[in-house]
Amino acid sequence: MVMLPYGTMSLFEVLPEPPAEFAKELGAYNSWLRTLLYNRNITSQSAAESFLHPSYETELHDPFLLHDMEAAVVRILKAMTENQKIVIYSDYDCDGIPGAVVLHDFFVAAGFSNFYNQIPHRHYDGFGLSVKAVEKLLVEQKPALIITIDCGTTDVEAVAKANELGIDVIITDHHEPKEILPKAVAIVNPKLGDTYPFTGLCGAAVIFKLVQALLARGNFMIAPGLEKWWLDMVGIATIADMVPLRDENRTLAHYGLMVLRKSRRPGLQQLLRKQKTSQQHLTEDDIGFTIGPRINAASRMDTPEDAFFLLATKDEGEAGARLEHLEKLNTDRKSAVAQMTKEIHVRLKDVEVMPEVIVMGNPEWRPSLVGLAANKLAEEYNRPAFLWGRDGNGVFKGSCRAGGGVSVVMLMNATPELFHEFGGHHASGGFSVRDERIHDLAAGLQGAYQLLGTAAKIVEPLLVDMELTLEAFSTELLRAQRQCGPYGCENRKPLYLISNVQAKEVVRFGKAKEHTKLTFATTGLAKEAIAFFKTPEQFAIIPTTELPVSLLVHLEESFFMGRLQTRLRIVDIV
Asked: How many other CB atoms are found less than 10 A from the CB of residue 146?
C-alpha cells in the first residue's frame, strides 16, 4: 500500500518486462501478448490457452457442487410437476434483473406458466426479501414457492414468516452469509459450504447454474444447448456487477458477450440501435456505459419491472414502448443528478474552509441517486464524499465514494455509532443513518479523518503494462489487447505510459465543453487522446501545445454510427 496525499496526480508503477524463460515458455505468442499475459500472472502455456480460449464445455463447474443445489432442484421440479404457483423474487439491479430474465426464459421454454416475477421497489421496499413483501405476496399471488435471485441469504425473519404462512423459499444468492442462516428449503450460494471450487459468481450466474441443474435432472422438451442463448443476461450481470473476471466468470463473460452480439431480444436490439452502438462489435464498455445504466435507471427512478420486461419481451412493439420509457427515465436520472450536483456546488461555495470529507444531504434527494453525485464530487474535489437522502419509508440512506486515496470504509468503521447500517470497501460504500445522528454525520466523519490521519489514505499504485511511444500503438497491440478481454474486476484494462509527448491540439468538446481531447501528429494507430467529464484545467498538470507531457492511457476501440474509432483514453497526465 502507498500513501497518497491530497491534490497529487496518480501514483503508478511500470511493470518490468517478462523474463527470458517466460518468453520461451510462451513463444507461440507475440511479444505484446506475452507481456499482457505475464502482467496478469499467466505464466504457463496451459494457463494462457485457458485464459485466451475459455471452453464452455470443460471450464464450467458442476452445478450440483453448489450448496443445497440438490434440494433446490427437487423442490422446483415438484412445483413444476404439480403446477404449484412459483414467485421469482429478484433484486432490482443489473444483476438481479438479468437473473430474473434467465429463470423466466427457462420456465417459458419448459412450458411452465404458473409463475410470477416480483421485483421490490428500491425506494419503498429496499433490498432483499422482507416480511412485508412475503405477506403481500401471500395475499396477491398465493405462491407455494418463492425463489429469490441475488438476495435472501441474510433475510432470516422474512423466510421465517414465509414458513409460518406455508410458503417454501429457495434462496439463490452470492452475498456474504451471516452466522445465522434463514431456514429455507435450500440456500444456493457459492459462498456457503466448501464443495464449489469458485466463490465469485454473481447472482445471475448462480441462477444460471440452477437452470443447468434443472435441465440435467428434468425431462423437458427443450432443444439441447438452448440455455446458451440465456448467457447474454449472465454476461451483462457478470460484467456490470463487478465480480472477479477469472475462473468460471471469465468463461461466462466471454460467452455472454458472444451471445449478446447475436442476441435476438428485441429490447436489447432496439436499445443498441437507439444509442447507435454496434451489436456485432459490443464490448464490456457498452455494458458499463449503455446497457447497465438503463437497467439501473428503472429502479433508481421508477419501477424495476420496466427494465425486466424490456429484456424479457419478444414483442417488438412492447420493447419499443419499454425502451422509450427507460430512455426518459435515464434522461430524468441524469437531470436529477446534475441538479443535485449543482445544489452541492452552490452550498460548497459558502464554505470558508473546504473540509477533508464532504458530507451533505437533503431529505428530498433519492438515496438511489446520491452515489452517482458522490462519485462526481470525489473526483472533482479529490476527497471522499458522503451524500444522503431519505427513502420512501423515511429512512436516511446514503452512498459514499473515495477520493484522494481515502478509504471510506475505514472512516465508517471509525464512527459506527453514527450509523444504523453500513458496508462497502475502500473505494465506495453505502449506509443508513440513525435519525437522531443525521446532524452529527459531517462532524463525526471529519473527526474520524483527523483522528486516523494518513492511516486513512490508502491507495494501490496504478500498474502500467508498458511504456510506449505514440508510434508503437499498432493493430498488433490492439489485437493482443482484444484477446485478453473482457476486462473488469481482477482483469484490469491494460494501461500504458507515454512519456514526453507534445500535443498538436488541446480542445474542450461536448455540449458544455466538459470533455478534453488532445490530438497528435503520429504514424501510430491512435491520433487522439480523450478524457470525458474532465477539462484540461482539472488535471494536476495542465496540457498545452507548448510543452510536452506524459500520459497514462488506455487504448480503446469504439464502433459508433458504423465507424470504427481507435483512440487513447486519458487516465491521468503525470
From this structure: 28
Q: Are residues 124 and 205 located together in one domain of the fold?
A: yes
Q: Are 70 and 64 in contact (CB under 8 A)?
A: yes
Per-residue pLDDT of 478-529, as tens digits, reads 999 999 999 999 999 999 999 999 999 999 999 889 999 999 999 999 999 9
Domain boundary among 201, 227, 253: 227
**Does 523 lie in the same domain as 431?**
no
State the Rg of the chain over Cα: 25
Residue-wise DSSP of 425-444: -SSEEEEEE-GGGGGGHHHH
Cβ–Cβ under 8 Å, residues 238 and 205: yes
Of 427, 456, 485, the position where a domain reaches its end is 456
Residues 448 and 466 in one domain: no
Q: Are 152 and 174 in contact (CB under 8 A)?
A: no
CB 173 within 8 A of CB 203: yes
The reply to whether the predicted model has a pTM over 0.85 is yes
On whether both 80 and 201 belong to a single domain, the answer is yes
Question: What are the pLDDT digits (tens) for 350-376?
Answer: 888 899 999 999 999 999 999 999 999
Domain holding 521, by residue range, is 13-51+462-573
Cβ atoms of 384 and 402 within 8 Å: the answer is yes
> How far is the C-alpha of 106 from the C-alpha of 365, rounded, in Å?
38
Number of structural domains (the chain) is 3
Whether 297 maps to a domain, the answer reads no
pLDDT for the residue 459? 66
C-alpha to C-alpha distance for 105 and 477, rounded to whole angstroms: 40
Grid coordinates representing 121 are 421497489
What distance in Å separates the CA atoms of residue 446 and residue 452, rounded to the nearest whole number? 10
Q: Nearest 5 degrees, angle CA 73-CA 224-CA 103?
A: 40
- Residue 73 counted as domain residue: yes
State the burial class of residue 223 (Cβ atoms within 10 Å of its Cβ: 0-12, 13-18, 19+): exposed
Instruction: Tell me which residue of 368, 212, 233 sits closest to 310, measured CA to CA.
Output: 233
